[in-house]
Amino acid sequence: MAFNVIARGRSYHPVAMPLDGSHINAYLELYEAPCELHIFVECVFALDNLFLDGVRERVSPL
Question: Which range of residues forms the domain containing residue 40?
């Protein structure tokens, strides 16, 4: 759930841009990290990489 909330702040110029630390900081201003902070941040970035890979696969020509 945390990733979905954080990803709502994603920018699109005209394609999906990667999340950065400011997106995670905005989330942490409202919610507690569900685990140690460094693990949480690494997980969010790993999920974001998977999301961006999926976007690239869908938009790349065959």
Answer: 2-59
Mean pLDDT by 10 residues, the chain (62 residues): 94 91 97 97 98 90 68
Phi, psi torsion values for 17, nearest 5 degrees: -95, 150
Burial class (CB in 10 A: 0-12, 13-18, 19+), 40: middle
Q: How many domains does the chain have?
A: 1
Q: Which residue has the tokens 């990733």?
A: 3
Q: Other C-beta atoms within 10 Å of 19: how many? A: 22
Task: Give the separation between CA 55 and CA 35, rounded to whole angstroms.
Answer: 28
